[in-house]
Design brief:
The protein is mainly alpha-helical and 126 residues long. The protein has helices spanning 3-15, 18-30, 39-51, 98-115; strands at 55-60, 63-70. Residues 120-126 have low confidence and may be disordered.
């Protein structure tokens, strides 16, 4: 499959969840939580990912608000990691834009998920 078609397919997948992503970003923005205290944000993000079929592991490396969300493909292929921050600045809130970064990472994950069934031929395994 050519790259242009993959971009359209991923973009369509993200477009289909735009409301959900905007809502996620706005909720995180409206409820700022500083580093290592972003319990609500982590919950909202992982809830969205689980609703879309990701397997979520919470509380990693002794950090209660850290998580990994995985989506296994049907074949061996590349592994993609998306990393995002979702904490706020004390006294400032989300002036740092981490609410946008978090929602953007979730959107990227959902866009990539849409490509998984057809990518084996385009992205060879390692």
């Amino acid at each position: 499959m050519e790259v242009r078609k993959l971009k359209v397919q991923a973009g369509n997948a993200v477009d289909s969840v735009t409301e959900e992503l905007v809502d996620l970003s706005q909720r995180i923005q409206a409820h700022p939580e500083t580093a290592y205290e972003e319990f609500q944000a982590a919950c909202w993000i992982t809830d969205v990912l689980e609703r879309h079929g990701f397997e979520v592991q919470r509380g990693l490396a002794g950090v209660e608000t850290a998580f990994v969300a995985r989506l296994a493909g049907k074949t061996v292929g590349p592994r993609v990691a998306l990393v995002a921050e979702y904490d706020a600045l004390a006294g400032v809130g989300h002036g740092c834009g981490h609410n946008l970064i978090a929602a953007g990472a979730v959107g990227a994950a959902l866009g990539l998920k849409a490509l998984m069934p057809g990518c084996r031929a385009y992205f060879p395994p390692y």
